[in-house]
Design goal:
By secondary structure, this protein is of the alpha/beta class. Helix content is 35%, strand content 17%.
Length: 292
Amino acid sequence: MPALLIEAQRVAHTVAHGTHGRRRAGPGETFWQFRLYDRNDPATGIDWRRSASSDRLFVREREWEAAHTAWLWIDLSPSMRFRSQLAKTSKESRAVVLALAMTELLARGGERVGLIGGRPYRGRNAARRVAEILMGESGEESFPPSARLSRFSECLLFSDFLEPVAETSARLEEIAAQGVRGHLVEVLDPAEETLPYSGRTEFAASEGRERMIAGRAETLRERYQERLKKHRKDLAAMAERLGWSFIVHHTDRPPEEVVLTLHNRLAGLERDYRYRPPKALAGSVTAASRAP
């Protein structure tokens, strides 16, 4: 965990140079910046000391301090420990780095960040506190825990999301119904995307004792990829119905890519907390089998 925290801080530091953050002017006590006086500004807002050093009038702006809360959930179940020869890190390690990097970035912006089911933290030690809690997690559940979350907050969920979509949707419905906006980050190993195996191959389930021997693994590739594509399409449709965002990340790609995308979505998208109850599905949802 210490190594993952250091990696997360490095990623956050890299991404922070390419973002503008979430700060903006508004009611509060903390000084933010000076700007030129506008005729619509009240005279009481003029900073006379700053204006005295120039031939123009300046207004002292304060920072908007209505901080939001971001809730995190990282899937630590056995399937997330998978790592193929195509990647240098496991899905679990990458998910932890992404979550801690987002904690670091959001905390720097004045937001409160915490794990679902726990308490939120703010300030420069937020990522370290979240990491300490993660060290004590058992990690057997493949779904986020049931918990009451503050309305108008946001949640960031990191998982391979390979469980049946119907079961995943039922749990996420509980979160969305509380007026919470969510962001799903599907973390996959590149081998789970391409199924690069050939010849006689034994596949062992990461959760359970199921095993399967394929005489020619390459003959399974096309059907497997079609099923995975259908599974991802159903996940994306579920996220769209809830008004949530959905991102796919592979562990052979730099973590900065998805952190930058996710941070920009939190900073730039207009928040929409309207809950959309599920419509009757036209047919049953078929989930992809877990990758080896």
